[in-house]
Design goal:
Number of helices: 10
Low-confidence stretches: 94-100, 102-116
Largest sheet: none
Distance between the termini: 62 Å
Shape: elongated
Helix content: 55-70%
Radius of gyration: 25 Å
Structural class: mainly alpha
Length: 237
């Protein structure tokens, strides 16, 4: 028994002992496979199958698998992303319900070069590729991944973690640009604004748009936010 565990909890049932053994066998056999390992760790964590020998899941990760908390949770989150995207492709692949044009284009492109593809070939290949998507909701993950497949099919680029991050940055930049345009249009339609106020506001929007395109290299985004917060405090009096 773990020396830090002073108050053992409810013992594992026979079913739980059998399940734990099966899950640990999966982890042991497929340590390099982020999906099976991540899903197995998730099951162990959610059912607290570690509870007899370890007080917390993080301790189980470290002592049983020499795995840090950060890496263990990354594997679990990446596996969740994989399952979510596999569900998406299951809904959109030809002959499996509605077809999404972006996925179909990718399939056609891949078939020309590599022959018939399976769903697995269109999914993240490792935890590093899935990691950027873990920051988003399942719906947003699907939106991003479709954009990844679409851009890869058009450009012929290899899907890597860096490629995925660049697609995410492009999406976020476009979202910001669309918001800036909306605010600029509203300012133009607000005829009662004094010319100096309107000009200043439009100039600030232009600065934000320019810096957004340059990934805020010239001036930190946090600096602009701090200045705007100061301005807001002044307005509130």
């Amino acid at each position: 028994m773990h020396p830090l565990l002073n108050n053992p909890e409810q013992p594992l049932s026979q079913r739980e002992e059998k399940l734990l053994a099966e899950l640990e066998a999966v982890i042991d056999a497929q340590m390099k496979g982020f999906v099976p390992v991540g899903l197995a760790l998730k099951e162990i964590r959610e059912q607290r199958l570690y509870r007899i020998n370890y007080p917390v899941f993080e301790d189980y990760l470290l002592r049983e698998w020499d795995m840090t908390k950060q890496h263990g949770y990354r594997l679990i989150e990446a596996a969740d992303v994989y399952v979510n995207l596999k569900g998406l492709l299951g809904e959109t692949l030809p002959n499996q319900g509605s077809q999404d044009e972006k996925v179909t284009n990718w399939l056609l492109s891949e078939k020309v070069n590599h022959g018939t593809q399976t769903t697995e070939t269109l999914l993240p290949k490792n935890e590093a590729q899935a990691r950027p998507l873990t920051l988003f909701t399942p719906e947003k993950q699907r939106e991003i991944w479709l954009r990844v497949l679409d851009k890869a099919s058009v450009t012929g680029a290899k899907i890597t973690a860096s490629f995925i991050i660049q697609v995410i940055l492009d999406i976020e930049r476009k979202t910001t640009d669309d918001q800036i345009k909306k605010h600029a249009d509203r300012a133009n339609k607000t005829v009662e604004l004094p010319p100096l106020v309107k000009t200043t506001y439009m100039a600030l929007l232009q600065v934000v748009q320019d810096q957004n395109g340059e990934d805020w290299q010239a001036v930190g985004k946090r600096t602009i936010i701090d200045l705007l917060e100061d301005l807001l405090d002044t307005l509130k009096g």
